[in-house]
Amino acid sequence: MKNLIKTYAPIVLTMSLFGLSFVWTEQLLTFRHFPPQSLVLFRLFFSALLLGVFLVATKRFQRPKRRDLKWFFLLALFEPFIYFIGETNGLRITQSPSLGAIIIATIPLFTMIACFIFYKERSTWVNIAGMLMTLPGVALVMFNDDLTLQAPLSGALLFFMAAVATAGYAVVIRKLSDYSPFTIVTFQGFIGALYFLWPALGFERPALADVRWGFDTLYPLAMLTVFVSALAFVLFVYSVKKIGVARSNMFTAFVPVVAAITVVITGREVMAWHQVAGMVTVVSGVVLSQWQPQASGRTTRQPQ
């Protein structure tokens, strides 16, 4: 039991923090008018700086090998760069954390397709059925009772772009198995900050100068920096190394549940019955898409 908790507690905590991140991000974008690219730049730079200090202080710093630099830059291109462009701008356009979280919950499906293409990992008919289940589920969340979109289509497409980027991240991260989770997240943070430096400072300087700094701004920014960009990403990389990409991504189903509960409790959104049904359908489909059959009394081990 103790080993089970040690194995799965990190990934459950990770996905719970990812769910809360939608609420904190939406608070900064909508209510504090924080420019989206600058928000990501702040998060990445200070979280990477925090982790870098920790690595040096604990003498765990690993210098990347020259042959692996291309994988670090490609990893950071997928996530955080492309992922956060999709997530933050999707939230800015839709102003709906629950919609964003439910689309992001389809990450395991795109990961399953990517792993089949690049690593020839095959899925069962149950996995494919689960993947197909998510499509009507997402539609139920996206549409109103009169079949009109509850949010602009462009925002939903940006969320899907973020989900696809994470599948690319899952493929590339296997190339860096020799590095600790702290090292991977630290360098992807610094490289990601470099990617965001030009769009943030080049286009958002006037908007950044107008940001009103106070507790309502600093609190969600600190939560995103310390608990999501630093802690949650380290725990995710740790879980990928521990239980594999497929089983780690299965827990993405927790993200929309945490986000939906939070926005309903705080009064930010009111979810209609068909949106709740869509969320349940997507979560069920994600779980089925990652289901692994029992063989000889043991669970099939996921490739690392």
How many strand units?
2
Helix share bin:
over 70%
Number of helices: 13
- The low-pLDDT segments are 295-304
Give the overall shape, derived from the CA principal axes: globular
- Strand/helix succession: HHHHHHHHHHHHHEE
User: Kindly state the mean pLDDT as a whole number?
Assistant: 86
List the strand order in the largest sheet. Answer: 1-2
Distance between the termini: 23 Å
Helix vs. strand class? mainly alpha
Taking Cα atoms only, what radius of gyration do you get, to the nearest Å? 19 Å
Query: How many structural domains in the coordinates?
Result: 1
Tell me the strand percentage band.
under 5%
Largest sheet report: 2 strands, antiparallel
Describe the structure.
This protein is mostly helical. The protein has one domain. The protein is built from 13 helices and 2 strands, in the order αααααααααααααββ. The protein has a two-stranded antiparallel ribbon. Helix 4 packs parallel to helix 7 and helix 8 crosses helix 10. 49% of the residues are buried. The C terminus is likely disordered.
